[in-house]
């Protein structure tokens, strides 16, 4: 049965949109138009970002050519970003000043580092998102004079702070730099994780001379220093800001229904609760049936559901529910090709843990590589 061709727009080339992008040709063959709006022709895979910092991967090893994916299938790529959604008019306002109309739209625009307002955007201060910042930090570290001391501070106590610190340490060791490391973890390092994982990370970092400060937050970070809330100052040449993530303010600014964190509020179909032609996935949504952790596994699981539901909405078909499913495995990359593995009650560390992560990550990249 033939359907009237619809304008399908993807905003952001994130992990939850990979299946749709890989099936661009199929969408076009069904008579629809597909447009991808993204600020970059490439999408970097966040799970491999710390490994890129350590030198385990090159930037081209961890990125998807989203421009190529959509254009190869006959779709259109626009290098831009959306600054406003006029949902009543089904209209997107672009940063460049242009506009794009849609029949169905899906957002996968990732997340920003939280609480970065007290920190300078000066040289030497790197938020861990966007992922390309880690490559910029790597370049700065590689160019650092061999004989000059290098002071590196990470602000944050979650998995990203642990991975970035461990991988930055591995890079400085491989380059024989005279580097010192401090993590300002806020309340508690890895506070949501089992005590066994904390023990492994503490033991590994203690051996490496990495200092961990718990029970204190950073008030501000600048080019050469970090001010703590107790009035102390730590001197730093490089600051990594890893204070958790939050959705961009696009949905709040556009007066769409959002969750407590400002993410697009979606139902069990990954569909806006007030605008049925608006969908979303990944870190930028708030899943109304149950809050989801900001981990990449959910974006990966959302892929087939978003692909099915966007086509169903365009063609009058039946939508599929998204089931987040049970647990998931996590592996932290601690640098030097050493990882910490956690799934259910199984926790172990070492080279094998890293190899499991490396296999899973490379498999995902291969699946959508063109």
Overview in brief:
With 370 residues, the protein is an alpha/beta fold.
From the structure above, extract its key features:
FAD/NAD(P)-binding domain, five-stranded parallel sheet, 370 residues, 26% strand, alpha/beta, single chain, 10 helices
Structure report:
It is a single chain. The protein has helices at residues 18-22, 24-29, 49-54, 66-72, 132-142, 159-174, 195-208, 250-253, 296-315, 351-367, and strands at residues 7-11, 33-38, 42-44, 63-65, 76-79, 82-86, 91-94, 99-101, 104-107, 112-113, 125-127, 150-155, 179-184, 211-213, 218-221, 225-228, 233-235, 238-241, 245-246, 264-266, 278-280, 285-287, 330-333, 339-343, 346-350. It has 370 residues and is α/β, with parallel strands linked by helices. The protein has two domains: 7-111 and 247-315, 3-Layer(bba) Sandwich (FAD/NAD(P)-binding domain), CATH 3.50.50.60; 113-244, FAD/NAD(P)-binding domain, CATH 3.50.50. Strands 5-2-1-9-21 form a five-stranded parallel sheet. Strands 11-18-12-13-14 form a five-stranded parallel sheet, with helices on one face. A hairpin with a 4-residue loop joins strand 7 and strand 8. The radius of gyration is 21 Å and the shape is elongated. The chain starts with 6 loop residues before the first strand and ends with a helix. The model has no long low-confidence stretch (mean pLDDT 94).
């Amino acid at each position: 049965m033939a359907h009237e061709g619809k304008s399908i727009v993807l905003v952001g080339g994130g992990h939850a949109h990979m299946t749709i992008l890989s099936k661009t040709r199929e969408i076009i063959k069904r008579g629809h138009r597909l447009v991808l709006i993204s600020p970059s022709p490439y999408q970097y895979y966040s799970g491999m970002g710390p490994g890129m910092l350590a030198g385990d991967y090159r930037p081209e090893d961890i990125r998807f050519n989203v421009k190529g994916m959509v254009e190869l299938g006959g779709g259109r790529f626009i290098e831009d970003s959306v600054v406003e959604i006029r949902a009543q008019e089904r209209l997107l306002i672009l940063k460049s000043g242009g506009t794009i109309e849609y029949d169905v739209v899906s957002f996968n625009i990732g997340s920003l580092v939280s609480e970065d307002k007290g920190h300078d955007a000066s040289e030497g201060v790197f938020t861990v998102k966007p992922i390309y910042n880690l490559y910029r930090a790597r370049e700065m570290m590689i160019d650092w004079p061999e004989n000059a001391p290098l002071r590196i501070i990470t602000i944050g106590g979650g998995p990203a702070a642990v991975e970035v610190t461990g991988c930055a340490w591995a890079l400085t060791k491989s380059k024989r730099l005279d580097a010192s490391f401090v993590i300002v973890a806020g309340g508690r390092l890895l506070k949501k994780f089992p005590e066994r994982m904390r023990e492994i990370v503490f033991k590994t970092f203690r051996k490496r001379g990495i200092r961990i400060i718990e029970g204190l937050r950073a008030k501000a970070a600048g080019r050469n220093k970090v001010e703590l809330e107790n009035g102390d100052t730590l001197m730093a040449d490089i600051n990594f800001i890893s204070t958790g993530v939050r959705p961009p303010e696009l949905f709040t600014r556009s007066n769409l229904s959002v969750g407590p964190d400002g993410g697009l509020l979606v139902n069990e179909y990954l569909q806006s609760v007030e605008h049925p032609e608006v969908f979303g996935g990944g870190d930028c949504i708030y899943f109304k049936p149950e809050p989801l952790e900001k981990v990449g596994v959910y974006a990966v699981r959302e892929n087939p559901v978003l692909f099915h539901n966007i086509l169903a909405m365009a063609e009058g078909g039946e939508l599929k529910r998204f089931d987040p499913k049970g647990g998931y495995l996590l592996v932290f990359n601690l640098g030097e090709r050493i990882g910490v593995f956690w799934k259910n009650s199984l926790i172990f560390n070492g080279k094998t843990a890293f190899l499991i992560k490396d296999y899973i990550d490379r498999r995902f990249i291969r699946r959508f590589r063109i």
